[in-house]
Design brief:
Elements: H1 4-7, H2 10-14, E1 20-27, H3 33-43, H4 62-67, E2 74-82, E3 95-103, H5 111-119, E4 123-129, H6 136-147, E5 151-157, H7 159-165, H8 170-210, H9 219-232, E6 247-251, E7 256-258, H10 260-271, H11 275-281, E8 286-289, E9 294-297, H12 307-326, H13 329-339, H14 345-348, H15 352-363, H16 366-377, H17 386-393, H18 404-407, H19 410-415, E10 425-435, H20 455-473, E11 494-504, E12 506-508, E13 512-516, E14 535-539, E15 543-547, E16 550-554, E17 556-558, E18 562-566, E19 576-579, E20 598-604, H21 610-623, E21 628-631, E22 637-641, H22 644-658, E23 663-665, E24 672-676, E25 687-690, E26 696-704, H23 707-715, H24 717-727, H25 735-753, E27 763-767, E28 774-778, H26 796-810, E29 822-831, H27 837-861, E30 865-879, H28 883-892, E31 896-902, E32 908-916, H29 923-930, E33 938-946, H30 964-970, H31 979-991, H32 1005-1013
Parallel strand pairs: 1-3, 1-4, 4-5, 5-6, 28-29
Antiparallel strand pairs: 2-3, 6-7, 8-9, 10-11, 10-19, 11-18, 12-17, 13-14, 13-19, 15-16, 15-18, 20-22, 20-23, 21-22, 24-30, 25-26, 26-29, 27-28, 30-32, 30-33, 31-32
The chain binds guanosine-5'-triphosphate and magnesium ion.
Magnesium ion (MG) binds near residues 34, 59, 70 and 103.
């Protein structure tokens, strides 16, 4: 559909970074991003003006259209000409601009797509629904934009809902808009304050490290300095203020939108006032004194109509009233004439919606309003801030600590130059798949890299990558190697393109550059082949300009552009850097908030299809930044996705695009954790154990860790992992940077462990996998090295004890799920006198491991055992009449409401709940069925929580009589379902473990017949 006419001149613009705007559209789900994008596309003639807001052109997948939600980010390149030099007071820009627009999904399952989009942009359009206001995902996307240091522009969308649906008066609507603006600005303020305080703190820390006499810095002076930091910082550019032109009011469905400037322009002549004055006063507490023909302050105090209501909203409301309510054709024609709008007789025959669209899209064209604001307000690639460059380059350490040649790249970023002397720096934020029929050069005879690889070439490439990765990462990797192949292998035409932003230099087909993976270290030693680990040389394939689904080949990608690059599959896994120099570091990791949590096992319906499924899984892994693919020890192929909707999309992709085989999908496998409660009578809970060779005797007790400690360990798994690697002697360059974090963690741990009887120094190991939230504590007289000390050579006993503990914590006795928040205290450890030293070490090793493991399991069982559930935080918006139904659904799924409040200025309630992940499947569907018009529940992982139900409870268990509470929990006859036991049973059944009390043989017909015949 992309017209070639529109593309003319694009190439010239691509060379001029001053005239480029790279922007993305961000918002909560369903706030109207894709509808808004439609209007921008229509302004370029890519789709018909009449279909804008209804077509949702960028939602080009069939399931996106069916479900009405976006599931992947799409990019499109647009052109826009600023008609005038802007109003007085705004920076004068004019001429034609190139806008690379990325529409992102709002559903929380796909927030990985948002991270990849935000990284390549310089600005964002943050869309907010005028009725729903600032929602959960709005907060997240604003935060993401902030973290990436990109400038946002606010679009308050669906203003038409305030008119026709909510039936607010213009004055009420004004209050509502004011409120939304306040909400969002409060958020921006909070982000700014926390950032500034953090910066001040960091600065102080650095200073303190330099000064030896740190003692002089009392708490009081520290506080003063923090305040000073906030006061000194300039936050003027931070807030959304309509008078500055960074707020657009819109209705994407009805095709209209405006920033204040538009009305200032319209009224300047009419009222004989200056456009600049109107620009400053149209929003705010100002009113028009008709007699004096002057604008005055304090409209509210004087009970006057604010200017915005009088000049803007009243007019809009009248238009809607004339068309939708009065349906008065004569009046409509009169209004149209007054506004200078052409009205076609055909338009008058349209339904009110169509007529409104026809009129308003002429009067206040949305595409123009938004693109004008984008070109004037958002920065060009050349305006990239120093702060952003530094944060892109320096992930682990301060920028000043980077090697010299790396620091020297900063001017190249700032210059954004496409000169031949400029180094090439491009960041690939994701790899995505397109069908080759959408590549503009599909029919061209010249083969392109990335499209025309032979089978052998693909196999050779894959093998090379596998070997390289094995060398770099060592052994023990269970994750399948995500090696991509081009779809041609199976006769289908699937091409993988890298979604990239060129920050400096140029990139064209055939260039040989370095491809640097995310783990690449600038000062890493050279490995085999003359290149450091995670670096490789690659010849760049064809370069494409992205036009939605269509990809247009372009000869060169210049600095400042967002492009698609072929030929990188198998070289970069998902993200990475392309550079002409090895001094370029891997960029900071993408900020992402979604955790893959929903697991399913997949298998082909026909066993012979297994190789195709495996191949398909590899392709899916490469093409989707949020999915994880595992091959479990049991031989199952497991897919881990961010949520239910994401899972459905992945399965569809697998079946239809990547594997093209029918597959069976298991019910979702939800992870659980196992833990213990500590009882008062600690004496009973100790267990004793002896190794079979009687060399070692061990007494151990399991206690629960304080909740804060568990959380701290969970959050710092990365630090603990590095600690372990260092103890194992696997030194990695970033380990040095971890020291600081480690000291911080130790301090925090000491604080949380206070009162628990566990000292920091007595901790000998963390587990499972040496970095989990369980600890092994030595309280015996036998010295065991603390986990914080460097590992002593030859302390084989400790290694074996730690290995046993790690095995035990990996799979607990309830249902072989990992343990969490358990401390195993070694109370006594005796060694029999050895006659033959050498033999004892080698033969006894295995026995120690298995005995310690067994001791841990028994110690665990000696305490009251509990299951821990993963919990989702879920915000549901519902109107008051369906509130009861929402509550009943939540409580039936064992969820609980943590907050419910009315969204200010509307009839809608916002209900925040905590819901076990294992009970969440089908929630969206159920909510939709039971209560019409409900916002989609957004599920985000929150935390792990102990399920306060004893899985082994039976009346009178443990010799005690059932208490009132027990009866309340389990019913009079204890016949209420024990859902802890139910979960345990489900997991055990899935894992093929023995389930006590479960009938193994279900229909033993034969035996019964024999008996009856007797
Ligand atoms: N009344 C009204 N409805 C709108 C407006 N803009 C969008 N909608 C409707 O809101 C729904 C969602 O619109 P989309 O554009 O798909 O929203 P989105 O933000 O792209 O949604 P996701 O990509 O799934 O996050 C659709 O039914 C639109 O018709 C508007 O201005 N007014
Ligand atoms: Mg969308």
């Amino acid at each position: 559909m992309a017209s070639t006419k529109n593309q003319e001149g694009l190439a010239a613009l691509q060379r001029d970074p001053q005239r480029i705007r790279n922007i993305c559209i961000l918002a909560h789900v369903d706030h109207g991003k894709t509808s808004l994008a439609d209007s921008l596309l229509a302004s370029n003639g890519l789709i018909s003006q009449r279909l804008a807001g209804r077509l949702r052109y960028l939602d080009d997948r069939p399931d996106e259209q069916q479900r009405g939600i976006t599931m992947k980010a799409s990019a499109i390149t647009l052109k826009h000409t600023l008609s005038d030099g802007g109003s007085e007071g705004t920076p004068a820009h004019s001429g034609t601009f190139l806008v690379n627009l990325i529409d992102s999904p709002g559903h929380v399952d796909f927030c990985g797509e948002v991270s990849t989009a935000v990284r390549v942009c310089d600005g964002a359009l943050v869309v907010v629904d005028a009725v729903e206001g600032c929602a959960a995902q709005t907060v997240q996307v604003l935060r993401q934009a902030w973290l990436e240091n990109i400038r946002p522009l606010l679009v308050i969308n669906k203003v038409d809902r305030l008119i026709s649906e909510q039936q607010l008066s213009p004055a009420e609507a004004y209050q509502r808009l004011l409120h939304i603006l306040e909400q969002i600005n409060a958020l921006m303020g909070a982000l700014f304050a926390s950032h500034t305080l953090r910066q001040t703190e960091l600065k102080r820390e650095r200073q303190r490290a330099e000064e030896d006499d740190a003692k002089e810095n009392t708490a009081e002076t520290l506080y003063d300095d923090w305040d000073a930091g906030l006061e000194a910082a300039d936050d003027s550019a931070l807030y959304f203020q309509p008078e500055k032109g960074n707020v657009v009011f819109a209705s994407a469905l009805d095709g209209w939108g405006f920033s204040i400037d538009r009305f200032a322009e319209l009224y300047a002549k009419k009222l004989g006032l200056s456009r600049r004055v109107l620009n400053l006063t149209l929003w705010g507490d100002f009113w028009l004194d008709g007699k004096e023909k002057r604008i005055k302050k304090n409209a509210r105090a004087r009970g006057k109509k604010p200017l915005f209501v009088q000049l803007v909203l009243d007019n809009l409301w009248q238009m809607y009233d004339a068309v939708g309510v009065k349906k008065d054709k004569a009046l409509v024609e009169k209004m149209a004439a007054a506004l200078g709008l052409k009205i076609h007789p055909r338009d008058l025959r349209l339904d009110p919606k169509g007529l409104i669209f026809a009129l308003c899209s002429q009067w206040l064209p949305l595409g123009k309003a938004v693109l004008d604001a984008v070109c004037r307000q958002l920065p060009s690639p050349v305006e990239i801030s120093e702060e952003r460059v530094e944060s892109l380059l320096a992930s682990q350490q301060p920028f000043a600590a980077l090697p010299g040649p790396t620091q020297a790249l900063k001017p190249a970023f700032l210059a954004c130059s496409a000169a031949p002397s400029a180094p090439l720096i491009a960041f690939v934020s994701k790899i995505f798949a397109v069908s080759s029929k959408h590549l503009s050069n599909h029919s061209s005879a010249a083969p392109t890299r990335g499209q025309a690889l032979s089978l052998e070439e693909i196999a050779a490439r894959r093998e090379a990558v596998r070997q390289r990765r094995e060398m770099a990462e060592g052994d023990g990797v269970t994750v399948e190697e995500p090696v991509a192949v081009s779809g041609e292998e199976k006769g289908e035409e699937l091409v993988f393109l890298a979604f990239a932003r060129v920050f400096s230099g140029t990139l064209k087909e055939g260039d040989e550059v370095f491809a640097l993976g995310p783990k690449y270290q600038v000062d890493a030693a050279e490995a085999e082949g003359g290149l450091p680990a995670h670096a490789s040389r690659v010849v760049v394939g064809a370069v494409y300009c992205m036009m939605g689904r269509e990809m247009q080949r372009m000869p060169v990608a210049y600095a400042g552009n967002v492009v698609g690059i072929a030929g990188l599959e198998g070289v970069l896994t998902r993200s990475g850097t392309l550079s002409s120099t090895l001094a370029c570091p891997a960029f900071t990791d993408l900020y992402t908030t979604s955790l893959p949590i929903v697991r399913v096992a997949v298998e082909p319906k026909k066993t012979t299809d297994l190789p195709r499924l495996v191949e398909g899984l590899k392709l899916l892994y490469q093409a989707d930044p949020c999915v994880e693919v595992l091959l479990q020890e049991s031989g199952e192929h497991v897919l881990i996705t961010a949520g239910e909707v994401h899972l459905q999309r992945c399965i569809r992709d697998l079946q239809e695009t990547y594997a093209k085989v029918d597959i069976n999908v298991s019910p979702p496998i939800v992870p659980f954790r196992e833990t213990v409660l500590t009882t008062g009578n600690g004496g009973d809970a100790s267990v004793e154990m002896e190794t079979p060779d009687r060399m070692y005797r061990l007494k151990m007790r399991a206690v629960s860790l304080p909740e804060a400690t568990t959380r701290l360990l969970e959050d710092n798994a990365g630090v603990l992992k590095t600690l372990h690697e260092r103890r194992k002697g696997k030194r990695r360059p970033e380990v040095a940077a971890v020291d600081e974090k480690l000291e911080k963690l130790k301090g925090e741990l000491r604080a949380t462990l206070e009162g628990s009887g566990i000292t920091l120094e007595s901790i000998c190991a963390f587990g499972p996998r040496h970095c989990g939230p369980n600890v092994l504590v030595n309280a015996s007289a036998t010295p065991l090295p603390s986990v914080w000390t460097a590992a002593e050579q030859g302390s084989g006993l400790m290694e074996n004890v730690a290995a046993g503990f790690n095995l035990a914590t990996l799979a607990g006795p309830l249902c072989e799920e990992p343990m969490m928040g358990v401390a195993f205290v070694v109370e006594d450890l005796q060694m029999a006198p050895r006659e033959d030293e050498e033999a004892a070490g080698s033969v006894g090793g295995g026995q120690v491991i298995s005995s310690v493991k067994e001791a841990c399991r028994r110690a665990f069982q000696a305490q009251p055992q509990r299951l821990m559930l993963a919990m989702y935080y879920c915000v549901i918006q519902a109107s008051s009449d369906v509130l009861g139904k929402v509550y009943s659904v939540v409580s039936r799924r064992h969820g609980r409401v943590v907050k419910d409040e009315m969204v200010e200025g509307s009839e809608v309630f916002s209900i925040a709940t905590l819901l076990p992940v294992c009970e969440s499947f089908g929630l969206g569907e159920e909510m939709r069925k039971r209560s019409s018009g409900l916002a989609l529940p957004q599920l985000t992982f929150s935390h792990w929580e102990v399920l306060e139900v004893d899985p082994f409870w039976t009346p009178g268990a443990g010799g005690r009589t059932a208490s009132e509470e027990d009866y309340e929990l389990y019913g009079d006859k204890a016949d209420a379902e024990n859902h802890a036991l139910k979960y345990v049973g489900q997991v055990r059944r899935r894992k093929g473990l023995f389930n006590a009390g479960e009938q193994v043989v279900v229909s033993a017909e034969k035996q019964r017949t024999v008996k009856r015949n007797k």
